[in-house]
Amino acid sequence: MTRIDKLLSSMGYGSRADIARLARAGAITLDGARLTDSARRIPVTPDLPSRLMIDGEALDPLAGMVILMNKPLGVTCSHKDSGPLVYGMLPDRWRLRQPVLSTVGRLDRQTSGLLLLTDDGDLLHRIISPRRHVRKTYRVTLARPLDGSESAIFAAGDLMLRGETTPLAPAELTVVSDTEVLLGITEGRYHQVRRMFAAIGNHVESLNREQLGGLSLPADLAPGQWTLLGASEIASIFE
Ligand code: URA
């Protein structure tokens, strides 16, 4: 059982005093009936978002949400950076949620594509844990044509990036054209894909993440759009 004012406050709807005011004004309903006592305790069940309405709108998703975003170019995976942030693409009040929403790993400002955000810390760590080997697949366009050696170099598992002391795990390269490839990696080192191509004398012109484990970026999700994931889609990440 959880107090309604505590729940709504943790979801960014305002302070407990704000919630009490909303309740007094008749803006909160539970199963269609006005809820005037904002200190009332209710069971937090998965169906609550469809039963509890604020200002006539269904409650936001409860804690444990997983968002799949098609990250556009030019936005940063950070809570506090200058310029547009990925969090700015979500409803404003979600920035006040506790537990906080975080990106599952990061994409560079100039990388687009599949980005997850979640407030589920355990899930986040399971996805980014190197031990899980969740494969991230990127579509890469290159400044210079491939010379044919790249697949073997990346697959060997002994490529060293400048300034690092351990070699990269094997990565899988699929050639699309002489300047376009799909690259699957299981690590998440800083600027990894750009640095991998720099290490072999090429240069990444554009980078878009298309897959995370068995989860693909839906073709109909335009850059900047996002959707909530269900349990089976979350499970597909680990397939
Ligand atoms: N590798 C990069 O270089 N940048 C990204 O954003 C992701 C992987």
Q: In words, what does this structure look like?
A:
The chain is an alpha+beta fold. Helices cover 20% and strands 26% of the residues. The protein is built from 7 helices and 15 strands. The protein has helices at 4-10, 16-24, 48-51, 121-128, 150-155, 192-199, 231-236, and strands spanning 2-3, 28-30, 33-34, 41-42, 52-54, 57-58, 66-71, 102-103, 111-118, 136-142, 172-177, 180-185, 204-212, 215-216, 226-228. The strands form 3 sheets. Strands 7, 8, 9, 10, 11, 12, 13, 14 and 15 form a 9-stranded mixed β-sheet that branches. Helix 1 packs across helix 2 (16-24). The mean pLDDT is 97. It binds uracil (URA). Residues 107-108, 111, 191-194, 207 line the site of uracil.
Give keywords.
single chain, 239 residues, alpha+beta, Structural Genomics Hypothetical 15.5 Kd Protein In mrcA-pckA Intergenic Region, Chain A, Alpha-Beta Plaits, 3 domains, 9-stranded mixed beta sheet, 4-stranded antiparallel beta sheet, 7 helices, 15 strands, elongated, binds uracil
In short:
By secondary structure, this protein is an alpha+beta fold.
CATH 2nd-level architecture of the largest domain: 2-Layer Sandwich
Q: Which superfamily, in CATH terms, is the homologous superfamily of the largest domain?
A: Pseudouridine synthase I, catalytic domain, N-terminal subdomain
The chain-level structural class is alpha+beta
Helix residue percentage: 10-25%
CA radius of gyration is 22 Å
Number of DSSP helices?
Answer: 7
CATH topology descriptor of the largest domain: Alpha-Beta Plaits
What binds here, in terms of ligands, is:
uracil
Number of strands: 15
Element order, helices and strands?
EHHEEEHEEEEEHEHEEHEEEH
What characterizes the major β-sheet? 9 strands, mixed
Q: What's the CATH first level of the largest domain?
A: Alpha Beta
How many discrete domains? 3
What is the mean pLDDT? Answer: 97
The dominant shape is: elongated
Question: Into which percentage range does the β-strand content fall?
Answer: 25-35%
Calculate the terminal CA-CA distance, rounded to whole Å: 35 Å
pLDDT under 50 segments (min length 5)? none
